[in-house]
Fold this sequence. Notes:
The chain has a single domain, classed as 3-Layer(aba) Sandwich (Rossmann fold), CATH 3.40.50.1010. The protein has a five-stranded parallel sheet with strand order 3-2-1-4-5. Residues 143-154 and 167-185 have low confidence and may be disordered. It has seven helices and five strands; from the N terminus they run βααβααβααββα. By secondary structure, it is of the alpha/beta class. α1 (7-14) crosses α4, α3 runs antiparallel to α4 and α5 packs across α6. It has helices at residues 7-14, 20-30, 39-52, 55-67, 75-90, 103-113, 149-173; strands at 2-5, 34-38, 69-71, 117-119, 132-133.
Amino acid sequence: MRLLLDTAVVGEICHPRKHAGTKQWLDRVSATHELMLSEVVDYELRRELLRIGARRSLRALDDLGLTITYVPVTTATWRAAAALWARARLAGRPSASADAIDVDILIAQQAIENAAVVVTPNKRHFEAFVAVMSFDEVPPSRMGGGFDRSGFAQEVLRSTVLLFEFACAQVVLHPPEHHLEYHLA
């Protein structure tokens, strides 16, 4: 399973003294799951670590990049995230204030693009958009070990439906500028 780690998770992993349980969790799941780190998460955490002068945490964040796949933010990601943000607003489900960049929407879009589950203690930030799990919900292996696969399948299906609805909404929000006419000879 692909797991896209949220900022709170990565912050705990990079802390030099605290959160031993999160670090043990990382060691356990990294053997059986593909772990991914958004460049947005790196930015969000790194800027704060630089501000407070947390050199050891910064080194840990740099080292994490050697073992976890970084997910870039592309122009297509920015555009799709903007459309996802607009769709959430139109549906009455804003995820942040209107003037915020809303990094959670960017992370959610990256999860959609990479068929990943977001791992976060803040599930409510993501659950309207993508499949999401807290630490204790991540199965110890790809095949289960007490994991409710039917529940996860329902989450994936719900995310797929949301993505389909989003794609349909794009057609309404952005109709073609030119209509082509086909003539039969």
